[in-house]
Q: What sequence folds into this?
């Protein structure tokens, strides 16, 4: 089975940097995805890491360490519109995506 | 390009009644997923289709839930009879194929309330 842990809540001010950590225990690990979900909205894909290292997409970056079963999502230059829930999700070798419980990010002015 | 379409957006029913949800995935996406999302939790997979074949339904409560994807395009998820614990948001998602399961496109969901 899959087990993912991420913090439940993070609060930061506009312009700040936030790092959301995700640790996982899984059989057949293949890669780690990140999704954003605004309140009442649909989850939207942000990034995917299959190999160790950092992937940068604009203000958002994602990191993976397979040996540590650990990844993080880095949100830079926080904006009010970044207030949302962020989910890490493990992709296994059976093509299944299993989601964590999510981290609620609140951005204050 | 149109996104994943789901209907209805909201549904309120009494327990023991049947309910059905419909999903039309992004055109050309072979893989379709149904998830259930409870408040404050991440989506949980109910069933995955590759074309018209259900390839992972291990988390689908088969005593009351059923799904179909005739012709390998749109799909229907049914609950009969509904229970109070079924209140949740039911999300449909699609990906180009199973290799891109890491990049799924979600519909807006159906918020089900069972009273």
A:
């Amino acid at each position: 089975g899959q087990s993912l842990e991420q913090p439940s809540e993070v609060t930061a001010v506009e312009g700040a940097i936030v790092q959301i950590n995700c640790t996982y225990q899984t059989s057949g690990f293949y890669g780690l995805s990140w999704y954003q979900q605004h309140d009442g909205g649909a989850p939207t894909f942000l990034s995917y890491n299959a190999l160790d290292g950092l992937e940068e997409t604009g203000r958002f970056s994602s990191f993976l360490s397979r040996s540590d079963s650990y990844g993080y999502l880095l949100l830079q230059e926080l904006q009010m519109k970044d207030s949302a829930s962020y989910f890490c999700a493990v992709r296994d070798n059976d093509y299944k995506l299993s989601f964590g419980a999510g981290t609620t990010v609140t951005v204050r002015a | 390009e149109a996104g994943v379409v789901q209907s209805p957006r909201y549904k309120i029913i009494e327990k023991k009644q049947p309910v059905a949800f419909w999903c039309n995935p992004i055109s050309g996406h072979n893989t379709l997923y149904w998830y259930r999302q409870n408040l404050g939790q991440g989506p949980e997979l109910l069933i995955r289709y590759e074309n018209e074949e259900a390839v992972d339904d291990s988390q689908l409560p088969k005593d009351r839930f059923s799904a179909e994807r005739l012709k390998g395009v749109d799909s229907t998820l049914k609950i009969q009879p509904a229970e109070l614990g079924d209140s949740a948001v039911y999300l449909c998602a699609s990906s180009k194929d199973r290799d891109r399961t890491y990049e799924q496109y979600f519909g807006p969901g159906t918020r089900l309330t069972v009273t």
Summary: The radius of gyration of chain B is 13 Å.
